[in-house]
């Protein structure tokens, strides 16, 4: 699957700031104290500013770690914590402490392509769809316009996110 990216760093940063502003002013963000998200790969939404903002607001951040075929857990993260590169090339926490699934108030779900209905195509492992099955709290995704497409149908095991944040003009 092709990975979509914004090649212009200034434009990417502008979009990220706009999308982040929408998220952090939302009632969902404001009420959340435990938030799960990923650390970004270069072509993805840069979550580091969001992590910094969350930590400055007293929120707790949790990062995913693959623990088996199709299975992941979330672990607490603070800037500067030890990270290990996974076989997928993603940085994962090196912390053995986990949080129970429904103790997470908000999960910011990554993906490659998103439909208007909140369904997503990820990187092919089904980790988030499995994790979200039975999850009772809030979910969202931070999406660049070029990631939006309705030219595909979700499969029966796909789980939609509740809210998609995308660039809003002025």
UniProtKB/TrEMBL annotation:
GO terms for molecular function: 5-formyltetrahydrofolate cyclo-ligase activity; ATP binding; metal ion binding. ATP binds at residues 120-128. The keyword ATP-binding applies. Pfam families: 5-FTHF_cyc-lig. Substrate binds at residues 39, 44. Its cofactor is Mg(2+). One of its GO terms (biological process) is folic acid-containing compound biosynthetic process. This is 5-formyltetrahydrofolate cyclo-ligase. The lineage of its organism: Bacteria, Bacillati, Bacillota, Bacilli, Lactobacillales.
């Amino acid at each position: 699957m092709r990975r979509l990216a914004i090649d212009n760093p200034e434009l990417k940063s502008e979009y990220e700031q706009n999308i982040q502003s929408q998220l952090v002013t939302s009632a969902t963000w404001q009420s959340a104290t435990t938030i799960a998200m990923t650390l970004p790969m270069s072509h993805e939404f840069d979550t580091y500013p969001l992590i910094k903002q969350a930590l400055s607001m007293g929120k707790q951040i949790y990062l995913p770690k693959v623990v088996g075929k199709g299975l992941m857990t979330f672990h607490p993260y603070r800037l500067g914590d030890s990270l290990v590169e996974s076989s997928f090339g993603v940085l994962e926490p090196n912390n053995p402490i986990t949080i129970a699934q429904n103790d997470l108030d908000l999960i910011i779900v990554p993906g490659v392509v998103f439909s208007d209905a909140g369904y997503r195509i990820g990187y092919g492992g089904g980790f988030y769809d499995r994790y979200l099955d039975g999850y009772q709290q809030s979910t969202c995704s931070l999406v660049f316009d070029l990631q939006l497409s309705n030219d595909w149908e979700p499969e029966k095991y796909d789980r939609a996110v509740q809210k998609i944040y995308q660039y809003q003009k002025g």
